[in-house]
Design a protein that fits this description.
This protein is of the alpha/beta class. It folds into two domains: 203 residues, Spore Coat Polysaccharide Biosynthesis Protein SpsA, Chain A; 35 residues, no CATH class. The protein contains seven helices and ten strands. Helix 1 crosses helix 7.
Length: 243
């Protein structure tokens, strides 16, 4: 199968300036995600979609393909994922006569992946012919049904299906809730082309460890602390690559 890793990396970032290329233990943040894609036994093409020439140059240094710069009209804060996915597919089909079977969507903001989970997710989706895509998530520490909304200064239930008293029930009373994360999402290209949607209606669940996403400087510093304390297989991979 043709399995493409697509790594989106916009130049703009408010929470952490130049986040995608900010150094994390001597390597640009984007390098960790490129390393994860390259270390996968199933991915056979790694492409970065960016609008920023500095990101392009660094991605090329670490072995990704960057055959285009993303147009500004699909690189803003409000741009949707399907915009850059369709743009990449159209470019690859027109310019390289390349149509992948699967797109493994890897976000730069989750640098602490374990490659085994990426490969396991790919294999799980390949085996499930009914699924339209796969999306990773991790178990929520607490059920949101124990939370409140407010109205006119008073607490109200979070949904019409719950009551204020539900917040006092033990955690075990509620179903497990899973939070979508940036660990690994996998898209079936045929489904995208037919339905013009990324995930379709039958999204295969894939539960991963919490990969800890980076959106703020505090989160960046916490990731740095975790690497310093526990190490990182991807950091070791980058060191062995000797770039």
């Amino acid at each position: 199968m043709k399995i493409l890793a697509l790594i989106p990396a916009r130049g703009g970032s408010k929470g952490v300036p130049k986040k995608n290329i900010k150094l994390l233990e001597d390597y640009p943040l984007i390098a960790y995600t490129i390393a994860a894609a390259k270390a996968s036994k199933n991915i056979n093409k790694v492409l970065v979609s960016t609008d920023f020439s500095d990101i392009r140059d660094i991605a090329l240094d670490f072995g990704a393909e960057v055959p285009f710069l993303r147009p500004n009209k699909i690189a803003g804060e409000k741009s949707q994922d399907i915009d850059y996915v369709l743009h990449a597919l159209e470019y690859l089909e027109k310019e390289e006569d390349y149509i992948p079977d699967l797109i493994v969507l890897l976000r730069v903001t989750t640098p602490l992946r374990e490659v085994q989970y990426i490969d396991e997710a790919i294999e799980k989706l390949i085996l499930d012919t009914d699924a339209t895509s796969l999306r990773s998530s991790h178990l929520a520490a607490e059920s949101p049904f124990k939370w409140f909304c407010t109205s006119n200064g008073y607490y109200t239930p979070i949904s019409d299906a719950s009551s204020l008293e539900d917040a006092n029930k033990p955690r075990q009373s509620f179903k497990n809730i899973y939070i979508p994360n940036g660990y690994v999402d996998i898209l079936k290209v045929k489904q995208i082309k037919i339905n013009n949607s990324l995930y379709g209606e039958k999204i295969l669940a894939y539960i991963t460890p919490n990969g800890y996403e980076i959106d703020t400087m505090e989160e960046f510093e916490y990731i740095q602390y975790l690497i310093q304390r526990h190490g990182s297989d991807l950091l070791e991979f980058l060191k062995k690559e000797n770039i």
